[in-house]
Design brief:
By secondary structure, the chain is α/β, with parallel strands linked by helices. It is built from ten helices and ten strands. It folds into two domains: 146 residues, Rossmann fold (3-Layer(aba) Sandwich), CATH 3.40.50; 107 residues, Rossmann fold (3-Layer(aba) Sandwich), CATH 3.40.50. Helix 3 links the parallel strand 3 and strand 4. Helix 1 crosses helix 10 and helix 2 packs across helix 3. The chain binds D-glutamic acid. D-glutamic acid (DGL) binds next to helix 3.
């Protein structure tokens, strides 16, 4: 399919996590048309091998390109840190990824201790290790794998006391080490913000990368002369690899979720 400035921006994640990037993207790019893919039939990605993650990314990216996407936002830290370099060399359209924001966290830290909550796949990736080494020489990074969090967020409810206990157990060692910033290194985790705000003392900054990703997407579109030219308000269409998508509880009631293989409306 031929792409042009007025065609779609693809956004994908293993599930509902990438939804946490959409408000920032729509705010900066109000005229753009987004196609959101939730790969919830294959979630979570966090415990998959790099090869498995790459295989899922290739299937989704090809589907988004077939639907006419002009750029793709990899709205998943696990997919970005494991696959974005390969995606960039395989496909000719631009990719924008998301990584845990340890650079701003480390630069602003007064206690020189920051916490990072992310998936096993992200924390063990070469890209995360490189970024962490480059920006945190004088800072202690307390890494914590958020085992079970993506699954709990996908199935809900978000006010389940068991989820609160699990999150609390991950945060405790960070508090004991005196962090003053908590980096949310998974796009699902902003769904935990109400819970985190209850658990964390006020002086601890919670950092996610949504705004940075939106700014970078705007920059890439501009540089590549791909910013949409219409004056009409943009839109979001939703696709899923699962029959009963978890997206349904999180998107506007009137929105439809279509099979990944179907065409945009
Ligand atoms: N939202 C994905 C991320 O940012 C979740 C990964 C998973 O499915 O485990 O890493």
């Amino acid at each position: 399919m031929e792409t042009n400035r007025n065609s779609f921006i693809g956004v994908f994640d293993s599930g509902i996590g990438g939804l946490t990037l959409l408000p920032a993207l729509q705010h900066l790019l109000p005229q753009e048309k987004f196609l959101y893919v939730s790969d919830d039939a294959h979630a979570p990605y966090g415990l998959k091998s790099r090869e498995e993650i790459l295989e899922r990314c290739n299937i989704i990216v090809q589907a988004l390109i077939d639907k006419g996407c002009k750029v793709i936002v990899v709205a998943c830290n696990t997919a970005t840190t494991n696959a974005i370099e390969t995606l960039r060399t395989t496909y000719s359209i631009p990719f924008i990824g998301i990584e845990p924001a340890i650079k701003p966290a480390a630069l602003n830290s007064k206690t020189k201790v920051v916490g990072v909550l992310a998936t096993q796949g992200t924390l063990s990736s070469a890209l995360f290790t490189q970024t962490s080494a480059a920006y945190t020489q004088d800072v202690l990074v307390v890494e914590q794998v958020g085992n079970g969090l993506v699954e709990a967020i996908e199935t809900g409810p978000l006010d389940d006391p068991k989820l609160a206990t699990l999150v609390g157990s991950y945060i405790k060692p960070m508090l004991e080490q005196n962090i003053d910033a908590l980096v949310l290194g998974c796009t699902h985790y902003p769904f935990l913000l109400p819970l985190l705000k209850k658990i964390l003392p006020n002086n601890i900054q919670i950092i996610d990368s949504a705004e940075a990703v939106a700014k970078q997407t705007h920059k890439i579109l501009k540089e590549n002369q791909l910013l949409c030219l219409t004056q009409e308000t943009g839109s979001i269409q939703y696709f899923s690899s699962a029959k009963n998508s978890s997206l349904l509880g999180f998107i506007p009631k009137e929105a439809e979720v279509r099979p990944l293989t179907s065409d945009p409306a």
